[in-house]
Design brief:
This protein has helices spanning 4-12, 14-20, 43-46, 58-83, 88-111, 115-147. It is mainly alpha-helical. The termini are far apart. It comes from Pseudomonas asuensis.
Length: 148
């Protein structure tokens, strides 16, 4: 039981890390239409808070951005290492709980929006689900063709 608690704690970080950490370059999905590689405002918005007050040079922004990206990737790898040690039943229970929590959060966010914003929010969610399904289909195709 004592070994299980740290593993579950690491596993509970998975959703946060999966949203924060970028996928490996060869597995990264294309950006949404109208979005550039660094987003509309680039790395400067990503490094808010204390970084904003440091007046970093563009080279420093790039270097720190790479370090932050690598750190997020490393944390994701560590999380997966411990998550993979959990029994399948507990992994599935965790995934189900995360899904319920995500849906609850989405509903709470939607409830804060005006009717026009809700309509747009629903459209964006639908597009995101379509892209997610397309990406899963591509990954499956990639696995099938890699083994050949």
């Amino acid at each position: 039981m004592r070994k299980m608690i740290p593993a579950l704690l690491f596993a509970s970080l998975l959703p946060t890390l999966s949203f924060a950490a970028p996928a490996p370059a060869d597995d990264m999905p294309p950006p949404p239409p109208g979005m550039h590689k660094d987003g509309a405002k680039g790395h400067r918005d990503m490094m808010g808070g204390p970084f904003r007050e440091l007046n970093l040079t563009p080279e420093q922004h790039r270097a720190i951005g790479k370090l932050m990206s690598q750190g997020m990737h490393d944390r994701q790898d560590i999380t997966h290492k411990y998550l993979d040690k959990l029994p399948e039943k507990e992994q599935q229970a965790m995934k189900d709980e995360l899904k319920v929590n995500r849906e609850k959060t989405q509903k709470a966010i939607r409830d804060q929006l005006t009717p026009e914003q809700q309509k747009k929010f629903d459209e964006l969610a639908k597009k995101q689900e379509q892209r997610k399904a397309e990406w899963a289909e591509f990954q499956q195709w990639k696995k099938e063709h890699k083994s050949n």
